[in-house]
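Help! Submission page says 'invalid entity' but I think these are all valid:
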Amino acid sequence: MSKSRKFYLEDIPLDEAWRRFITAMESSGAWARVPGEELPLEKALGRVTAAPVWAALSSPGYHASAMDGYAVRSADTLGATETAPKRLRIGPERQAEYVDTGDPIPSWADAVIQIEHTQNVDEGAAGKFIEILASVAPWTAVRPMGEDMVATELVLPANHLLKPVDLGALSGCGHATVSVRRRPRVAVIPTGTELVTVEQAAQSGLKSGDIIEYNSLVLASQVRQWGGEPTRYPIVVDDYERIRDKVREAAATHDLILVNAGSSAGSEDFTASIVEELGTLLVHGVAIRPGHPVVLGTVTDRRTPIIGVPGYPVSCALTGEIFVEPLISHWLGLPQREKPGLKAVISRKLLSPMGEDEWVRVTVGRVGKRTVAAPLSRGAGVITSLVRADGIVRIPRFSEGVEAGQEVTVELYRDPADIDRTIVHIGSHDLCLDILAQYLADDGLLFSSANAGSLGGLTALRRGDSHLAGSHLLDPSTGEYNIAYVRQYLPSTPVVVMTFMHREQGLIVAPGNPKGIRGLADLARDDVRFVNRQRGAGTRVLLDYHLNRLGMKHEEVKGYRREEYTHLAVAVAVQSGAADCGLGIAAAAHALELDFIPFEKERYDLVIPRIHYESPLLKPLFDLIHGPVLRKAISDLPGYDITAMGNIVIEL
Amino acid sequence: MSKSRKFYLEDIPLDEAWRRFITAMESSGAWARVPGEELPLEKALGRVTAAPVWAALSSPGYHASAMDGYAVRSADTLGATETAPKRLRIGPERQAEYVDTGDPIPSWADAVIQIEHTQNVDEGAAGKFIEILASVAPWTAVRPMGEDMVATELVLPANHLLKPVDLGALSGCGHATVSVRRRPRVAVIPTGTELVTVEQAAQSGLKSGDIIEYNSLVLASQVRQWGGEPTRYPIVVDDYERIRDKVREAAATHDLILVNAGSSAGSEDFTASIVEELGTLLVHGVAIRPGHPVVLGTVTDRRTPIIGVPGYPVSCALTGEIFVEPLISHWLGLPQREKPGLKAVISRKLLSPMGEDEWVRVTVGRVGKRTVAAPLSRGAGVITSLVRADGIVRIPRFSEGVEAGQEVTVELYRDPADIDRTIVHIGSHDLCLDILAQYLADDGLLFSSANAGSLGGLTALRRGDSHLAGSHLLDPSTGEYNIAYVRQYLPSTPVVVMTFMHREQGLIVAPGNPKGIRGLADLARDDVRFVNRQRGAGTRVLLDYHLNRLGMKHEEVKGYRREEYTHLAVAVAVQSGAADCGLGIAAAAHALELDFIPFEKERYDLVIPRIHYESPLLKPLFDLIHGPVLRKAISDLPGYDITAMGNIVIEL
């Protein structure tokens, strides 16, 4: 038994890691498809046939009338026309018998004449008669027995994903049940002393160091979505023996074990050692990013496959996609599902990591004729980068990275049609954009917003990466907002500048303002740590403008170089005590219950190239801006003024 | 109350029918989205958010170490290098503290130095020290509080379909539950005196006139697949009052009612009258095919929307797709799902029905560079046409139909990638092709086989519609199979002719051969009704060859003009008593336990253009033909001889 700490993590290429894993499963029998179980059809939707199904009965089971009308002998109808109808007897020694659609035709009949071609039902002493106004060929309007399925015929192959109509066909040919592959059983074991459940967090709050455990929820949900049956174990603390015993227990009843976190080579990373003790460690470390510290192996006498899944949420979810989904699909007999691919140009340069395949999360927008993929955060801890991702761009190892504007293939998480109903905003961040997104969602539109700052937004417009940009750039020479910048950055693009709203900018400080900060001059104090916004942000332009007016130098401001990308990030830096103040909007201070020292009401405009301003895609957005509902919602927020909302500032 | 029979069925264009239905729902409030219900996250996968979700907690909830290493003050590290390490004290008045990835950093620290850049933990009288080999900038290797989500930030919009990672994000920002739209409740009421359940059929068999009820299973499964909650009612007999009462009962607790069958204008079609009595009949008859007799209305004081769904299985399933899916999607707040579209050429001419939109089921194959859509049966009773369909081609009303070779857009039921792994066979029908398909499915390949007869198969090859053709065409002048026909039909295409197997052809007759048929000469008897194969079928060529040898004329054979398209269809015609005999293969007679009078062992070849013969797609097929497994499976069937299997007859 090895509990000794290992610093060593390999860098096995993904295909080689797979090869080792599959080879081990082939030799143990674990690579075989899962066996079948007999289910009633009502429970079989979305399951996979374990064997071919042959018709037990013919359908229809008899020669059936395809219309409402009279079953006849076709020979009896010869020569009948509208002008020369023929009489056929109903009743004894009959020549005609009424049938509804679906009724069996009598054995003496070989055709059906539809009711519209008959008339004059005439009841006399000689019996009951009809007149027919047309002749019919043999087998007219008859669905022959077995037209749909003949008993013994193949109805569905094995490895077939059951759709609603498939269940109908199985029923129709006499099967009340069907043999489908049982769901592969996957144990998901979350480990970590620092972990708490979200229920605990929601009830009792979090202590510093507590982490809400949700990777097991993501993994279990993935397993379920892909057709497996997950068992989500309770959290196991970082204790070698306890984790090992839980793995051993799970191995007895599962097809696959996922141990979450502890897959790296740190002091409390036990997975690799446990796999070594209980079975065979095949791979420790795969050359992929995110997701490098993956463990692959088999454990116990059953040689149950086990995956040590890394703890960072993005690494965890991608490990599911890369390793677990193909396994489940294979066990079920389904083809490896490929995501729809879409060609797009990448909005900014991506450096390639050395020797590792990288999965980059991107948003995708259709802007005019360009399809643009914009990379999201590459941080493995940022689950929202996966939540917001429209797809993944894979950068293969040893590639030279991707230049801005280069074409890439995006593997889409969404329906490609979703891309066409997405409005792409790149620019300054404001809470009101989230509110706007809500109302657009009600209209079935998606609003993709990337926080690149005001200048970043204008640059993105110039590249053709976005439909519009929120901007609040103060021109120091005139005190006017945005116009000078738009002229400079988009000199040859016809654009409309429309005011979205005015908003309060000011200093965000801790509750009660413990440092007694009263204005920008206090930023020069030695005991005041500032947190800044990134270069290109309108708020930073505003800061520089005012520092300049006050004759203050950047070096005088402690923390001038610490950059955050959103108002809320600035506010949280103050909330956490990492900084004493930052410049930002009132809404951000209010959201985190911080104090706020206002000093400027600024205009926040939307800059929209005319070609998009006039496009049908954006029309609902302008309808909202001109309507009462959005105005009401925004004016209810602290620190906003909607008086000028929708005003055209200038058309350039 | 009107129970009077109506012969009148309207022909309302689909968009007008929709407009009426939606307008009525808007005025009653039934067009509103369904309300939300609060669910634990474990149960929320695949559900739709009923409201936007804002972060309840920040994540991380503190400044967290991004690595295993030592938390330090960045200022203390200034100047440290490998050659000039700096000593930092651990413990009281500390300058460094060990942290694992994810641990909070102490409040005095502002950076983490990774463990690989430290060394020499040295315990002396002065305390515990480490040496650091590099300096770090402020906030290096620290994930700031709120890096992923800041409390109050928008995490998910409303109307968002919850994926596994979304559940992770919700958990991570402190939500243990989420408000999702409750599933729209849909009542499915099957009606019809002739209906029996498949359980009854499987237990007690079917009487003539019995129909297995499965439309309600298809509709309920569709509803479930699209996110609704179906209630599948027991079968109601054709009784106006009983159906009406069941509708009234369902209206009280459902968002939508589907009454299956009885939607037309026949003597037992009650739906329209019931809707009229209980509420408002909006539409009776829509200009679509299949699916014309659709009823739309609202019933009872609740003005519950109701759809009378036609009884033919294909009409029923398509009515679900056309009317029910968009309603459920709308109620859930999801966009109308569009099937992926694929451009293809249609393999044969389609006449357009007068004034109706037609939905044509097609199979789709990628043959070389052509993507070919081959229409399936247009019979509304043939559910297998939907089971086998790869997609739908819509022919709009008042179009002039579609010419063979014309480009159409197929709305795919499958993943487009499935089309690329499909081998397309058009040609003569044989059971062995189904067996072959089974083994190909194990390799992840799909085998699409259309029964067009041997000549039809060669014609399809000439058009480039298929990869290969099964053929058993006897050349009367030489007694040789296939070669002369291939030379004639494919004069300029390099092809390989490979023998699949030999098989017994003969006369299929009822058990015990009650008519004492001994050979083809008996077909001239007045009391013998024959059933023939379609023009172009190899079996018909064989018949004509032998009739000619015997000096018999077609007119002498009663039933010569009655055509079936498969051996099994011929066999079932004999089984049902519709014919006394037909020409076909031993396997078909055997399958239906009929008697068989053999008279010819024929060669059945596969004709494969060389370009496909050499393609990787077809390689697994030839591997199977040359391997032992398929041979064993086919030689176990009655009437087959595999001696020549895989032999190349000729390369042309």
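Support: the input was valid. A stray whitespace character was the problem, and the output above is from the cleaned input. Chain A has 19 helices and 36 strands.
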